[in-house]
Amino acid sequence: MKFTISRSRFIKTLNDVQRAISNKVTIPILTGLKLELTHNGLTLTGSDADISIEAIIDVNDPDAQLVIAETGNIVLPARFFGEIVKKLPNNLMTIIVEEGFQTTITSGPASFNINGLDANSYPRLPEVNAAQKLTLSADILKQVISQTVIAVSNQESRPILTGVHLKVNDQLLSAVATDSHRLSQRKLTLENTQNLEYDVIIPGKSLTELAKILTEDIEEVDLRITENQVLFTAGTIQFYSRLLEGTYPDTDRLIPTESTTQVEFESNVLLASIERASLLSHASQNNVVRLVFEPADQVATIYSNSPELGNVEEALKFENLSGERLDISFNPDYMKDALRSFGQTNVKVAFTSALRPFTLVPSEDDDNFIQLITPVRTF
């Protein structure tokens, strides 16, 4: 195996594939990067058994400057090989694999020799042969991921909650995540998917890594699902992820349909106030911020304190406030994550009582995106 390639183009693809490679795997060869060279181009593959990423550098890609002298394949130690490539002196580099899997990497005056492994020992990628596919705008998919993964659980005690529940039915896509303290749900109307139905749970970790790959030069993503795998195809990248097994909780019943206190904020203004209040709450063991609404006086106040450091009190600026008086406490980090997911827009917040979950929705599109947060009992 022998080829020459643009180092900058190779590194771009390497960075994508390395997202699937971990040193904490039970199969030692999976700490490596698989390179497979054919007359059509160079394929890079990485996997940790849960996520697998395959990316192709086409021989006709003008940026790649790929010159193929001899086809073949090899598995190289991903971390060490990646560090070498990123520090080579010239933009062109040459890789030669000889018998015994000895691999030489040269660029300008620099030359490295490293030991590789037999690519035939590398596990096969999952087979996803589903005829049906769902095509989504890369920008929309990235937005849906960012708005929902914030609510997935990090606790392995309930593995099902570490994923995002994705459903497609009657031309409606629904993505929901909850860690039992908060919930995020995004809905999306689809076109040309009359016969498509999905009901799967995708690990939050997988979706987070996928979102990092969806750069501006990728316009659409194809999604295919089989019994226990999902395949996202984005340009020359194929991203495989296992699906979580089990039944996701019925989250619709958790979302209140009525409220007793309603308030509307500019999301960035409320976010800034909560960030200030959390400076003190983070110094306290309970990490709680308190909101008091006085609709009769048209006053809203945020409070936070740390017994060791002091306290903060700030009058909040709001757009509209109505309903009953309310005194409620919550984790400010959940609120900050929720508000960031809305971007630069107005947010309507609806409360039912001091101990019942409250909701946040965008003022202009309150049917398709909702965040829910459970308050903290402080008495």
Automatic annotation (TrEMBL):
Q: Where in the cell is it found?
A: Cytoplasm
A GO MF annotation of the entry reads: DNA-directed DNA polymerase activity
CDD domains, A to Z: beta_clamp
Principal location: cytoplasm
DNA polymerase III beta sliding clamp central domain sequence ranges:
136-250
Name of one Pfam family that matches = DNA_pol3_beta
The chain positions of domain DNA polymerase III beta sliding clamp N-terminal read: 1-126
Its annotated function is as follows:
Confers DNA tethering and processivity to DNA polymerases and other proteins. Acts as a clamp, forming a ring around DNA (a reaction catalyzed by the clamp-loading complex) which diffuses in an ATP-independent manner freely and bidirectionally along dsDNA. Initially characterized for its ability to contact the catalytic subunit of DNA polymerase III (Pol III), a complex, multichain enzyme responsible for most of the replicative synthesis in bacteria; Pol III exhibits 3'-5' exonuclease proofreading activity.
Protein family per UniProt: Belongs to the beta sliding clamp family.
Name this protein carries in UniProt: Beta sliding clamp
What is the source species? Agrilactobacillus yilanensis
